Amino acid sequence: MSFVKAKFLTFNLLPRFGIMLFGWAFLLSPCLKAQNRAKDSIESLIKEMRELPDFSVKDSLHIDLLNELAKEQRFYHTDSLLSLSQQALTYSRSIYYKKGEGEALIGVGNYYSDKGNHKKSIDYFQKALSLGRKIDNPKLILRAQNNLAMQYSYVGDYAQSLIHYLKGIDLARETDNKFMLSVMNENVANLYASQKDYTQALTFYKEVKKLNEELGDEIVSAETMSNMGSTYADIGDLEHAMYNINSSIAVFERHGIMEWLAYAYETKGKIYLKGGKNEWALYWYRQSEMLHEKLQDERGKIELLNGMSKAYLRMNRDSIAEHYAREAYKISTVIKDMEGSQQCAKTLYEVHKNKGEFEEALKYHEIYQSLSDTLSRNENKKSLTMLMTKMEHEKQKVDLIAENKKQLDTQRAYVNVALGILFIFIVVTLLVGRSEKIQKNLNAELKKKTKDLEKNELELQEINRTKDKLFSIIGHDLRGPIGAFQGLLKLFKNGEIEQSEFMGFMPKLANDIDHISFTLNNLLTWGQTQMNGAITQPAVVALDSLVKDNIDLLSETAKNKSIRLISHLNSNTLTWSDSNQIDIVIRNLISNAIKFTPENGMVTISAIELNQQWQISIRDTGVGMDQDTIEKLFITTSSVTTYGTNNEKGTGLGLSLCKEMVEKNNGSIWVESSLRKGSTFHFTLPKANKNYQKTA
Fold this sequence. Notes:
- With 696 residues, the chain is of the alpha+beta class.
- The chain has helices at residues 28-50, 60-73, 78-94, 98-114, 118-134, 138-154, 158-174, 178-194, 198-215, 218-234, 238-255, 258-274, 278-292, 298-314, 318-334, 338-354, 358-432, 434-493, 499-504, 506-530, 543-560, 579-595, 627-632, 654-664, 690-695, and strands spanning 539-542, 564-567, 574-577, 602-609, 613-620, 669-674, 678-686.
- The strands form 2 sheets. It has a 5-stranded mixed sheet. A two-stranded antiparallel sheet has the order 1-3.
- The longest helix is centred in the middle third of the chain and has 75 residues, at 358-432.
- The protein is flat and about 115 Å long.
- It starts with 27 loop residues before the first helix and ends with a helix.
């Protein structure tokens, strides 16, 4: 039986945690710690979110976290996988959150797949695929298509399986998704390996290795090497098999990927079994068995248990061999794994024959023979079907290219005819009225000059607006506090107020100076951008440090209103951006949040890791905004300025400045708000990848 492990997709929001194993005696505990750490981190985020005053179970972030937690529970607590996915599905549908609904549908489909209910699993994956196409989400489409293809291979519909893989490969190429291209090609290789077409399988695996080198993800590469190790073992190339499996084990142990580590140990046991080293085979099988005690991966246990049975049989320990073979046969029957049942029946036949129980041996031999005949008949059909399916798919692509070429030729002919008519018209026009052409040239020149004048007028109006706004801010927002400060100093200098009275004004003067400093900083930055003088100089920026510095800077203002400032950012929140510009964005957004939050409120700063970006969110428990106000917030020409809950004054520049700074750093900014419920400002920034970090 050729056994390879299919690649399922997770797209976790949280990174995997690395661990180092220091000896076989402590093998199980570190792996569990690494797996539990990811789960605990998600549960901690959910708990923190549920403690927020305006928490709703229907919040899209809460739904995303439920889906992530469900993925972590797979292979460990399948009932939790189902329960969490169903919760996410219900909440997503209630708020029409299609992405969350698609992820939840895949989670429920995975549950039924692991239970052997392939009909229900296919139904859920098809719904997720339809939803992904409806909302035009390539990642959701590819994930659903990958899982759907695997289910069709489990039920023996290899034509449907291959067509979904091939369509997925085409979409991955179109969207330049190299990770999915690697996954899809590897699962096609697995499909060929399951049919013992090892030459074709290894061809695909080698192509996948090249893609993995471009991706630079050692975990993805290790998964591929595990499958290659199993395939090399099946063809008897034990040297290559051992090299690949040892390389993958080192990675899985370092990162604590328990389900793949169990598979890798089992494969290493198979390699020793193929080499006739039964004791070593059992040693590695037992390592895998220890991990499987904490896993719920029935499909993966079949090959393990049957392999242990073979090892014990070779050591003449027939009773133990029978125990493991029966357990494997029972699992394969429950989840309807025909190839697993065939191999287990063969092992049970050999066990009973060895024990002299010929009647039982004959029974299992007949089962083995019946399944072998069925698989043998199906084998030719499968190979032919896969070949025909692939040829049909390629033919459709060729026909589509030919049809596109035909349409392009037709369009080109129309263009040529149109150009010919246009040429004739130009010649006739030149012949009948040269003077008219001169007049047209003069008119065109006049129109051009008119447009230039209109453009200059618009630029002049814009400069005047900038000047007016500048003087308005200086006159209203700076002259007032500075004049008050001068007047107070004059009274103190002339002896009209005592020193004790003067000191009583110090808190207000400090606030006025802070306001003047903040306003001048925004004003200078804004003026620089208006004069096209702001140059963006990106580098690796640790957002948690910027947020901490601004919390320290604004803590006194927040303290005066008894407002709590809370940051959930971790040290790994690294972006590729201009530190000074993003510092201005964070300071303005936190300052605004404090300004519009009443006393005893809370301002929370958090971050979500997306595919290529970080999404930073600053949420307050303030007065909120209506839709008309939201629509005017980021307009550069808008003069919207409002007073805070304690009559704090602003320039109206902050948010338009934030928009300019974020967009200069290849990000976007938006707001979600409801009256009396508070506001949440979101903005995105590019992640600092490894190359940027090394350069920095």
